[in-house]
Amino acid sequence: MAAAVALLGRATGLGLGLGLVAAAGGRRLLRCGAGAALRERGTGTLLGAAVLCRPGGAAERCLSRGTSSNPRPKRPLTAYFRFVMDNRPAFKEKNPEASNTELVKKLASAWKELPASQKQVYEEARKTDWKRYGEQLAAYKAQLTPAQAAALKEERRKQLARRRSIRAKRELNLLGKPKRARSGFNIFLSENFQESEGNSPVAKLKKLFDTWKKMSAAQKQPYLQLAQDDKVRYENEMKSWEAKMIELGREDLVRSRRQRLKKKPAETAKQTETAKAKASSSGKKAKLKKSEE
Questions:
Q1: pTM above 0.85?
Q2: Per-residue pLDDT averaged across 54-69, rounded?
Q3: Apex CA 82: angle with CA 79 and CA 85, to 5°?
């Protein structure tokens, strides 16, 4: 089931709300992050770890990090975001029909045209808050146990890795990298998800996953054929895209030769036989030398 959930999240982007975990009494809980415990969705009520966390699960590990009574201080806003918060209501009032995207563009343009003397006011406020933040953060870290500090450091490392991954994916999207080929199950899932029975996305997923497992090879064949066609499409588009990346000087985005060229079964079998023959020959020579001694 967990594998199916992962597949659905990657392939269809249907938004299953997997950040929620079930607890006793049917309550819906928000999964905790660094420096926070589980809280009941909607109410924000802090819930106890002993009853609600599955032994050894991610939620229990989060709570066992030992969140302190003092919450981790928040980073101060940048000068630009301070300007946006101060001026967004006025911009919204002047442009009631504007969308959020349009408002952001107008605010960004206004920030660029703002005199340096006025920008300095926001910058000074940022510096003052940043100094206070440094003091609060030092006090927060000082009252952590070694285990809590190590967990906090690891969580920070994961956050930075996720940010790098998001930036990399965003760049690839801007460069027009082709979408990966879908599997037969993913195609079956996307075609039948909306009509599937179930009161929730997870229930629908479970139903379709069970249906797929019970399907015969002949029933799966159309989806597997579509997946094979999609694989051909992906490889052709990737070749064109990688050629374009080479022209742009982005060889770092091109797959290695080992990734692009998969060994044929016959070649692999031949190499295996050759390796076995060499090993056998070496063994015989070693035995003959030992007998001569």
A1: no
A2: 43
A3: 155
